[in-house]
Amino acid sequence: MASLMHLRGLARLATRNVPRITMVPRQNVAVASMIRQYHAFRPSSTAWKKKRMVIDEDDEELAAELAELEREKQEAQGLATSQSSASESTIDGANSEEAYQKLRDTILQKTRQNAAVHEYPRHTALHHLVRMVQTPEQARELPTVVAQWRSKQLPLSVLLSNRIIKTCVAQGHPEISLEMLGNREKYGLQPGQSAFRKVCTAFAKSVTPGAGAEESGESNESLEKLDSAFKLLALIPHYDSLMAGDAGLYAPLIRGSLVYGGEEGFRRAHVTFEEYSLVDAERAQDEELPSSIASQLVGAAKELQKAYESRPDYASNAKKAGELINAWSKYIKA
Question: What pLDDT does 88 receive?
Answer without folding.
Answer: 46
